[in-house]
Sequence to fold (380 residues):
Amino acid sequence: MTDTTLRTPSEDAWEAFLKSLFSPLPGLREMAILELPTWHAHGRNVTPLLEMSVRDPEPMVCRAAAIVAGRMRIATPALLDELEKKLTAADDLLKRTIVTTFARLGAAGLPRMIRLLADRDPFVRRFVALALEDLGEPAIAPLIAALAQEPLRRAAAEVLIGIGQPALPQVMKLLDQPDRDLQYVAMDILEGIGPHVLPTLIEEIKLGNRGPAVGGDAVTRFGPDAIPELMKALRSSDAAHQCWAAATLVKIGPAAVPALTASIGTDSTSVCWLAAKALAQIGTAAVPNLLTILANPNATVRWVAADILAQIGGDALPSLERIITEGEAPAREAAIHALGLMGETASSSLPTLTAALQRESDPSLRQALQETIAKLAVFQ
Fold:
C-alpha cells in the first residue's frame, strides 16, 4: 500500500479549499482556516489568507485565524495590527485567544502585550502578566520602558518582580534616574524581588555604579533583612563604604541596635567608632543594649558604651542613675563616667551621685563620683 500523506494536493483540492475559505457560512470558513498549516506545509503562501481571515467579522472565524497565527508563529505587522484592533470586540473568548496568540509569538508580540497590561479585563491583564514573566529576559527592556507610563507602571513593576534576578541590572539603573517616582518604583521592585538582591545592590553602591543616597534608601526598604549585609559592609576596607553602611544602619533604626552593639570592642577601631556613632544617632532605642555592656570585663568597651550613652543624653539618665545605685562596680564606674561626660543634662542627677558617694567605700569609685560631682556642680 502506497503512503499518500506526503503527496502534494491537486489544484482542484486547492480550489475547493479556497471556496471553503470564502464561503458565506462562518463554520466552513472556520474549518478552512484550521487547515492553513497543512497547506503551508505543502508550500502554499498562506500568510495573506491568514491576514484576511483575522479581519473576518465573525468572532469564531477570527478566533480560528488567531489560533493558527500563534501555532504557525506568523507575526507580520498587518496581522498583528488587525489582531490588536479585534481586542476592542465584545467577545471575551476572542480577546483571550488573541492574548494567547501574542504570548505564543514571543518577542514579536511584546509591544502589544505590554499595552494589554492596562486592559479593562482582569483576566487579560493577568494572563498577559504571566506570559511576560514566562518570556523573561526579552520582556525586561520593554517593561522597564513601560514604567514611565502611569497606566502601565504598577502592572509592569509586578511582572518585573516575577521575572526576578534577570531584571536586576536594568531595575537598579532606575535608581539613578532624576525622576523620583521612577526611583521609588525601582525600590518597590527590588523589595518585591526579595532580600537576595542585597549583596548585588550593596556591591553596586560600593563600586560607585549606583548613587549611595538613593541606594541607601533602597537598602533600608528591606529593614532587618538588610542588617547582615550592611554589617559586612561596615567591616570592609573601604572607609567611604564603611561610613555609608553605618549611615544606612541608622536609617534602619532600632532593629540594627543588637548588631551594632555587638561590634563595640570586638572589631577594628574604625568599625567600633562607626558603630558607636550609629548607636548614638539611633538614640533612645539603643539604651537597653548599651546598658548591658556597661559591665563588660573590657574597660574599653565599658568606656565606649558610656560615651555613647552620654551622647544620647537625657533619655539615658534614669537607667544610668539606677545602675549607679544598684549595679556592679564596673558598671557603676562606667555609668558615673557617662554622667560626667553628659554635662549640664546630667546636673539633675547630682542628688543620686551625692547619695552614692556617702555609701561608697571603694576608693576608685569614690574618686570617680567626686570628679563627676565637681563637673556637674558648676551647672547648679
Summary: The radius of gyration is 36 Å. DSSP finds 25 helices and no strands in the chain. The longest helix spans residues 363-377.
